[in-house]
Amino acid sequence: MEFKRIKTLKQYNKYTDLYEELVLKNLKKDAEKIDLLELLIEDFDNKTILEIGIPEDMDPVDLLVYLLEENNLSKSELARQLNVSRQLITEIINYKRNISKRMVMKLSERFKIKPAAFSQEYELKGNTKKMSVA
After folding, report:
1. 122: how many CB neighbours lie within 10 A of its CB?
2. How far is it, in rounded angstroms, from Cα 36 to Cα 29?
3. 96 contacts 125 by C-beta, under 8 angstroms
4. How do residues 1-21 score in pLDDT, each as one tens digit?
5. Where are the domains of the chain?
6. Does this model's pTM top 0.70?
7. How far is 25 from 2, CA to CA, in rounded Å?
């Protein structure tokens, strides 16, 4: 399979799914593919962050809170739209839970923002280590 620089969300999703699949298999023969996919995904993420202009001090939770306010959405309504529990949204907003890859994709589709916006590392409250997409 020939890989190219990521230019669309569809291509990004395809590459991230393949990346996860290869990492889970953990075969030595796939090491170069994994490295290349990682570089392409990171490149797309970095380019996306620059395009949407997220301030460096705005983490994914801050962004989510901002988008809820801008779209006049309650946590309950967002939970219904994403088909997740209100508790999950509350835990994310209260820095009690990290944003999973699946949730990154749901949020990016809902708000029409590239996944990188919700993929940045941030600290959970009561934890000293940074959390990133699971």
Report:
1. 16
2. 13
3. yes
4. 689 988 887 888 888 889 888
5. 9-52, 60-131
6. no
7. 20
